[in-house]
Design brief:
The chain is an alpha+beta fold. It is built from five helices and three strands.
């Protein structure tokens, strides 16, 4: 009995996800925004108290808002106190950020 599956002409190569994302316009924009958010946080982090710097994560960034993720509600509260400083820093970088959203990260279930 013959195999009923069509013969594969060539096996497909695995493509790194970053390369695949860059090939799609929507994903490329999202990837660029995430990189810009991370770069903005890297430049703003020195203005934060040193113990907080390593635990905050940069998240979404768009034309008017920026989102940061905090691991605990206490760190989120501290970030909320620092909002004016962080928004001023973003504006100094040439971004039109009017709102800083702070979210508490949840543990995976």
């Amino acid at each position: 009995m013959r195999n009923s599956y069509p013969a594969a002409s060539q096996p497909k190569r695995a493509v790194p996800i970053v390369t695949a994302a860059q090939a799609q316009p929507t994903l490329a924009r999202m990837l660029a925004a995430q990189r810009q958010s991370e770069a903005l946080w890297a430049s703003a982090a020195p203005q934060m108290p040193e113990p907080l710097r390593g635990s905050i994560r940069a998240a979404a960034l768009d034309e008017t808002s920026w989102c940061l993720l905090a691991p605990t509600s206490a760190l989120a509260a501290k970030l909320r106190q620092m909002q004016p400083v962080l928004i001023a820093h973003a504006k100094a970088q040439g971004l039109g950020i009017a709102q800083l959203r702070i979210k508490v990260m949840t543990a995976p279930r």
